[in-house]
Amino acid sequence: MIGVIDTEGDCAKWTFPADPGAVRAARTAVRNRLTDWNLDGLADIAALLVSELVTNSLRHATGPIGVRLVRPDGVDGVLLVEVSDPLPDPPRARVADLDDESGRGLQLVANAADRWGTRPGVTGKTVWFELSLPR
Questions:
Q1: What is the C-alpha to C-alpha distance for residues 109 and 46, in angstroms, rounded to an integer?
Q2: What b/e sequence results for 89-107 when a residue is b if at least 16 CB atoms lie within 10 Å of its CB, and e otherwise?
Q3: H runs (alpha helix) in the chain
Q4: Model's pTM, two decimal places?
Q5: Residue 98: pLDDT above 60?
Q6: What is the distance between the alpha carbons of residues 14 and 32, in angstroms, rounded to a whole number?
Q7: Average pLDDT over the chain, rounded to an integer
Q8: Chain centroid to CA 98: how far?
């Protein structure tokens, strides 16, 4: 992990180097923060989806990878999760063949998250998704 930018209050941000260890480190950071926030019910799916997006960043971009969590204000809110990298091109979902070992990450995000999307940044892009709080 390059460093924890902020983990106080309603937001947590980390920056990871573009190396294979970033996937595990990001997954662990997300899971631990959600446990600290008493959002254990979202930890597995959030960690899985972050893993997919960080893996996409590692495959297609160079440079640091940012992960950001925004905790909902109330019990009816959503958890916002963002993964940023320096590549400006938005990700493209593709249809993976049955024998393909990759190509399903964005499909997984689209099917598991309540909403997801991308937005350009100053020096790259952010892919985000939202998860509703468990009831």
A1: 10
A2: eebeeeeeeeeeeeeebbe
A3: 21-36, 40-60, 105-112
A4: 0.86
A5: no
A6: 13
A7: 85
A8: 25
